[in-house]
Specification:
Radius of gyration: 21 Å
Structural class: alpha/beta
Distance between the termini: 24 Å
Number of helices: 10
Number of strands: 11
Strand order of the largest sheet: 7-6-5-8-9-10-11
Length: about 325
């Protein structure tokens, strides 16, 4: 029965009528969204055709549910990043199910946060907000006309390019394949990351975390950035080598780091990054619950409709790529 949804095409083939389970513990708002889209909510049983998973963890529990109910045709995960479910996704490659995440759904608030971090660093705010005397130095840079590198080409990157357009930046997007991205001056493959970084004034990290991308920005990549480059990471902490990042800040080679994500996370008290004057750390709050809940509910509505044959699934997970 999972094959009743065409996993190779954008538009689904309608599945036989069957309820949707909201797991692991139910959620009134999500259940209302399912019903708004014409779906039926019921406890998980042999008739279940879709699962909306609302927890950021619990891959083992979800896997057990799928093993016990092979007729489930669609699974919705709650976040844009699905690295916590990576082994489960790998195990279910080719099983005919459609898997969707929230990727792209939270792009606006996360891109907004990334832009805020970049501007704050360029304008020397980490130092100025703690000043207790008038310090009229001439430090500070403008984003207008800057050379920008965005690592990743998903929803966050696309929205960030839109926000950066009024600043007239020259943006290079680094992605798995060098396919053009609207709004970017150029697009290069990951193999050309080092070359792309050589002229960067601001680097935004907005890629998915996979086995291949872990540690993508390491000591070698940081050394290729011009002195004073600002690094902003709003994706996953493990995309950047933390020790190399600390070294780059301590040496003064990096002009600053804006981190909404860290490795490890949460970042322990006393970690060297907390004491770096050129580092802004926000505790993974680029997309707060107040921002994400309405966006997730809309994603659920659209994908329930797709399961019932009305439109295409949004946020499809590429099980081969892992995100």
């Amino acid at each position: 029965m999972p094959g009743a949804v065409d996993a190779s095409a954008g538009a689904p083939t309608p599945v036989p009528s069957g309820p949707i389970a909201v797991l692991p513990d139910g959620d009134a708002a999500v259940e209302a969204a399912v019903r708004d889209a014409g779906g039926t909510v019921a406890a998980l049983d042999a008739s279940t055709r879709g699962i909306v998973w609302t927890a950021a963890s619990g891959a083992a529990r979800l896997g057990a549910a799928l093993d016990a109910h092979p007729d489930v045709a669609w699974v919705q995960l709650p976040w844009a990043g699905v690295d916590a479910f990576a082994p489960l996704l790998e195990r279910h490659r080719g099983d005919g199910r459609v898997w969707t995440s929230a990727k792209g759904a939270y792009a606006q608030p996360v891109a907004e946060h990334a832009l805020m971090l970049a501007l704050a660093l360029l304008r020397e705010l980490p130092r100025r907000v703690v000043a207790r005397s008038w310090q009229p130095d001439e430090r500070g840079r403008s984003l207008y006309g800057a050379e920008v590198v965005i690592v990743g080409a998903g929803g966050i990157a696309v929205e960030l390019l839109r926000l950066l357009a009024p600043f007239g930046v020259r943006a290079t997007v680094v992605r798995r394949r060098a396919e053009p991205v609207e709004g970017a001056h150029r697009t290069v493959p990951t193999s050309a990351l080092g070359e792309a970084l050589e002229h960067a004034e601001v680097v935004f990290v907005a890629a998915a975390l996979t086995g291949a991308s872990r540690g993508l920005i390491g000591a070698g990549e940081l050394s290729r950035m011009p002195r004073g480059t600002v690094l902003v990471n709003v994706a996953r902490g493990a995309l950047v080598d933390t020790d190399a990042l600390v070294d780059g800040l301590r040496s003064g080679r990096l002009g600053g780091a804006g981190l909404d994500v860290t490795d490890p996370e949460p970042l322990p008290e006393g970690h060297p990054l907390w004491s770096e004057p050129g580092c802004i750390i926000t505790p993974h709050v680029a997309d707060t619950e107040a921002m994400t809940v309405p966006l997730f509910l809309e994603r659920v509505r659209r994908n329930v409709a797709a399961l019932l044959g009305d439109g295409a699934f949004e946020g499809r997970i590429d099980l081969d790529a892992g995100y």
